[in-house]
Amino acid sequence: MQAKWLDIGPVTQIEPGMAATLPVIGGEEIAVFHTMRGEFYALVNKCPHKQGPLSQGIVHGDSVTCPLHNWRISLRSGEALGDDQGCVPTIPVKVDAGRIYLLREAVVPPTPAQRKAA
Amino acid sequence: MNAPTSFDKASALREKLVVIGNGMAGCRAVEEILARDPERFDITIFGAEPRVNYNRIMLSPVLAGEKTFEEIVLNTADWYAQNAIELVSGDPVDHIDRTRQTVVSRSGRVEPYDKLLIATGSDPFIIPVPGRDLPGVVTFRDLDDVDKMLAAAGQGGNAVVIGGGLLGLEAAHGLSLRGMKVTVIHLMPTLMERQLDEAAGWLLKTELERRGQTILTGADTQEIIEKDGHVAGVRLKDGQEIAADIVVMAVGIRPSTRLAKTAGLDCERGVMVDDHMVTSDPNVLAVGECVQHRGLCYGLVAPLWEMCRSLADHLTGSPSGYLGSVTSTKLKVSGIDVFSAGDFSGGDGAEDIVMRDAARGVYKRVVVKDDRIVGAVLYGDTADGNWYFDLLKKAEDISEIRDGLIFGQAFALGGGANADPNAAVAALSDDAEICGCNGVSKGKVVETIQAGACSLDAVRSQCKASASCGSCTGLVESLLALTLGDEVQAGAKTLCKCTSFTHDDARRLIVEKELRAMPQVMQELHWTTPDGCASCRPALNYYLLCAWPGEYEDDQKSRFVNERLHANIQKDGTYSVVPRMWGGLTNPRELRAIADVVEKYDAPMVKVTGGQRLDIFGIKKEDLPAVWADLNAAGMVSGHAYGKSLRTVKTCVGSEWCRFGTQDSTGLGVKIEQMTWGSWMPHKFKIAVSGCPRNCAEATIKDFGVVCVDSGYELHVGGNGGIKVRATDLLCKVSTEEEVMEHCAAFIQLYREDAHYLERTAPWLERKGLEWIKAQMFADPDAVRRLAARFRHSQKFMQDDPWAKRASGDRSDLHQHLATVRPAQTEYA
């Protein structure tokens, strides 16, 4: 039985206003954000526009500006802000006792067995 | 009140209530029970401290010398006696025996119970660093801690407080007032980050520093240093050491759950309770900081009161139920008013209303979502905190008062008309002062507008209102709207949506007001967002870097990715790497190193650029430092092909080889590149040196172009080969290489100091006019020398190869993945 939440390390490894990446074997790379307000969010690291790496964008408030074409994406909902339309999947995050956790089922892709069962 | 005695007839029928914890929660719970039914329980309270119940929140004033212990006592010995409560102090409970329904104290005393109340509060969190157990390392939790601090402070000396939250800052304030030299070490980049946003945290930090405390943010403690068996200082992870005669550890608290856990009660972070404060055992209740209710643990006092009421309702037979608390924090740190409530981190559909008053040191931010207040942060003026908190808790629709909301209750509710800021300005008398800097009255501004000034700029130039610090810009805009209605002309384009200031205003005020940090600029220039946006942050970062060379610390989080990773991001998320080739020259060693890198890292493409160098494509961000190490080893440095900075100096072969060449254009190009590389600019900057008027280096479409002629050098400026081709204008002609270098440095510095961020030299020159540029450089015979000297000074701090630093491991966090998630093998079974 695996824990529901995946421990990805201490909060100090991501400076506020920055993001870090978490590749997933067989799944989508995840971008983990630390806002200037001290909150953590995680999104699939792909802009809904042209798949730009959101982890490399400038973080402001609770949004990130994609480095490729300046789309603004909400870190809370993954939705494109302003006049742009699109959405990127979000991954639930919790912080406990100084460590960052991601919801495992949202991170790890279904196994072949699970896929067969479905 | 009738004091029941133990000889009462009813006494035998009473239930026995044992309370573990003689603190604020435990005693308040007892008070609430007594208020409802004084006859119901025989009560025994166990307290770990050898004293009556006091107001723990007031320990700070005791430390600061503003109050005595007697003044903060909540329940005197008389109160216990009058209510026939037995207080067992200084003998903490050791364990709970739920089968026998007894508690056993450390001294061996056994006390039976019918109902047990756990109110053990919380324990200070001790960071697990070497030296944490040394004498002289204290926490800030009870009166004994305060006594230890006072004993240390009596001898003066240095104090270090680890933790820049509320508790830590109060300890620091107290110790500072007691005459110690205090340093606060805080792990996060801003103080009190859980209660305050970055802007307010920055204001607090500056104010505390002004009062003599040293505040180190982003500082990670490595160990506590010992000397002669006592604490002697603190060493940080960056190697810095701070001397200390006392170290106060105030990094946070944790619910105290040991007793409950060993008794087998359900615990997570805290002791789990339901809405009636009952634990997993129906005869055991818990209240206060030690509990976890609906997933939350509280560390503030207001929720405790609410919990105690529900607990007493339940125990006295009329259950009500606790539904959780929305908390707010209102506090004074060193006499500085701070308030925060709710969720002020924004969110979807949430809008920030921000008001900053730099002169009064006030910052207010109210977060509104769906016409309701969801959060607020106030600094410097917290008078309206309770009003905002009330609106928040009641989820009141604020759409009617929205325009005046940020000005506070008196203004917003001061009658329908007054809720409109324009109306408030209209109500001002004609002699009311609008612009404090230039002493301009409302009457004068209106007169100026009526005489034809239809825009903010026109008002500024004609009567000087809002032409200095700009803090009255909003008032002048209101007067324009009131006087002209729809005829107001849009003002100059502002820097971005976060501010009403233009690029020029911001640049000028950074220098005039000596603004040296980004939060300071945002505060002084009344930014309407808490931390700017992707447009203003890089611009301000550049303006500060340009204004304060060698002083301002470059802010990586305000850099566009290319300048953060020193490479060019490509459409697939990989990067291209361009090493510098001085003046376009290269040699076998460099070419071999480039070829090796291409093979070693499987770069799918290498291309010759338009700037006479080689571009290696398809490098992953995690491989960049290794690529750079290989290129550095062959003597190559960053080409800054990614930066708003000097790109290349393109040259032709010149007089050394070319039969038409008039001067050594290649050699001059190399010298110019060596002088200018590494410089950050408003936008990218390209230079070329052609050896004769045939102009093979295409110098006349560069930002700065040199065309060599028999008699010397023509200097051309403001060219561009991009979207809109623009040929250069001739700036001047000079006769020596030294003069070329001096004029090049001077022109670049003029551009650096004047242009708007992301404005190339071509549009800049067209906006300002060639004559203006010539006037800046030549009207005063010494101007070129002064500009060039400022450029050279700035270059002293810029010409470090950024690749070399990264190749040696600096900021590896920017390149490495956190980890790689591999689905566990068992999941495939």
TrEMBL record, chain A:
<dbReference type="InterPro" id="IPR017941">
    <property type="entry name" value="Rieske_2Fe-2S"/>
</dbReference>
<keyword id="KW-0479">Metal-binding</keyword>
<keyword id="KW-0411">Iron-sulfur</keyword>
<keyword id="KW-0408">Iron</keyword>
<dbReference type="Pfam" id="PF13806">
    <property type="entry name" value="Rieske_2"/>
</dbReference>
<keyword id="KW-0001">2Fe-2S</keyword>
<dbReference type="InterPro" id="IPR012748">
    <property type="entry name" value="Rieske-like_NirD"/>
</dbReference>
<keyword id="KW-0560">Oxidoreductase</keyword>
<feature type="domain" description="Rieske">
    <location>
        <begin position="6"/>
        <end position="102"/>
    </location>
</feature>
<dbReference type="InterPro" id="IPR036922">
    <property type="entry name" value="Rieske_2Fe-2S_sf"/>
</dbReference>
<keyword id="KW-0534">Nitrate assimilation</keyword>
<protein>
    <submittedName>
        <fullName>Nitrite reductase small subunit NirD</fullName>
    </submittedName>
</protein>
Automatic annotation (TrEMBL), chain B:
<keyword id="KW-0560">Oxidoreductase</keyword>
<dbReference type="InterPro" id="IPR012744">
    <property type="entry name" value="Nitri_red_NirB"/>
</dbReference>
<comment type="similarity">
    <text>Belongs to the nitrite and sulfite reductase 4Fe-4S domain family.</text>
</comment>
<dbReference type="Pfam" id="PF03460">
    <property type="entry name" value="NIR_SIR_ferr"/>
</dbReference>
<keyword id="KW-0408">Iron</keyword>
<dbReference type="InterPro" id="IPR041575">
    <property type="entry name" value="Rubredoxin_C"/>
</dbReference>
<feature type="domain" description="BFD-like [2Fe-2S]-binding">
    <location>
        <begin position="495"/>
        <end position="544"/>
    </location>
</feature>
<keyword id="KW-0534">Nitrate assimilation</keyword>
<dbReference type="Pfam" id="PF18267">
    <property type="entry name" value="Rubredoxin_C"/>
</dbReference>
<feature type="domain" description="NADH-rubredoxin oxidoreductase C-terminal">
    <location>
        <begin position="328"/>
        <end position="394"/>
    </location>
</feature>
<keyword id="KW-0479">Metal-binding</keyword>
<keyword id="KW-0349">Heme</keyword>
<keyword id="KW-0411">Iron-sulfur</keyword>
<keyword id="KW-0274">FAD</keyword>
<dbReference type="InterPro" id="IPR023753">
    <property type="entry name" value="FAD/NAD-binding_dom"/>
</dbReference>
<dbReference type="InterPro" id="IPR007419">
    <property type="entry name" value="BFD-like_2Fe2S-bd_dom"/>
</dbReference>
<keyword id="KW-0004">4Fe-4S</keyword>
<dbReference type="InterPro" id="IPR041854">
    <property type="entry name" value="BFD-like_2Fe2S-bd_dom_sf"/>
</dbReference>
<comment type="pathway">
    <text>Nitrogen metabolism; nitrate reduction (assimilation).</text>
</comment>
<feature type="domain" description="BFD-like [2Fe-2S]-binding">
    <location>
        <begin position="434"/>
        <end position="481"/>
    </location>
</feature>
<protein>
    <submittedName>
        <fullName>Nitrite reductase large subunit NirB</fullName>
    </submittedName>
</protein>
<dbReference type="Pfam" id="PF04324">
    <property type="entry name" value="Fer2_BFD"/>
</dbReference>
